[in-house]
Amino acid sequence: MNRRRNMMLVLILAILALASFFSLASGTYRIPAERLFEIIRGNGTIPENDVFFGMRLPRLILGLAVGGALSLAGVLLQAIFRNPLVEPYTIGISGGASFAVCLAVSLGLVGALGPFSVYLAGFVGAGAVMLILYSLNSRGRIRNISTLLLSGIMAGFVFSSLIILVLAFSKAEDAHGILFWLMGALDHSNLKLSLSALGISLLCLCSAFVFFSELDALLLGEEQAAHLGIDVPRAQFRFFLLAAILTTVAVSLSGIIGFVGLAIPIVARRIMGNSHRHLLPGAFLAGAAFLSLCDLVARTLISPRELPVGVITGLVGGSMFIWTLLNAGGRKNV
Domain 2-327: what homologous superfamily? Predict the structure, then answer.
């Protein structure tokens, strides 16, 4: 069994490496393979350096960070709720980020404060929802994890209505920009921001990995986990906070990219097993590889035009999810 898991992990790493290579080389401005190594060594021309370091590399790193973050958040949430239908966007955080971005664009803050105001608004909106949920939990207003999930779902509905309200009062050009952001994109060009997102994602992965045995215990049910000596409420909210941080980073930087946190954890669980010792790194790498491949397709399918990457993840991830459910025989629990 361990040999099979190791083989699958090597396969995922190989797919990730190929996706990274083609992402750096492919596009409207094609860079030959031999030139990639020259650019990395510092021997590239000015146009090559501008494309590679100014566009392709930040975009690739952001795709790895967001894909890994959403997939990891999905694994954590599905373990907490013991339900494969739970994903990062069902806890209300994406709704808060989306509403904040829509409001910032509609009020003209993007033009006044620059493009980084979009990421800042998304981070503030998502972070505000996370802090509200944490405050309610710490004060005892949220009595169990199911109430927390329902609160997130209801918050998502409220924010969806507010977004429609903002769109109704926005200018046509602002509404177009808002809709494109809501479909998900990785087209910003800031290397430091991308590296920061990847660093936060990896830090959350390490934090979750330290407590992988608690995740395994939670899959057995709350009573069984308590009998094993697990402080269930504390463990549940620890993993919820990690999932919330991961979702906040992903949504604030890339918009709404659906099905990565839903489909990839399910597929990863089927090929890596239920042990989170193997599942956590496997799902993170699989999510990173999947989003990188989807972004490559989004950039090159109708080049020089570009599709929102959320469209590709929705088509591919949704198909994967339906196929997995059909083959799983309609099971509801992880």
Answer: ABC transporter involved in vitamin B12 uptake, BtuC (1.10.3470.10)
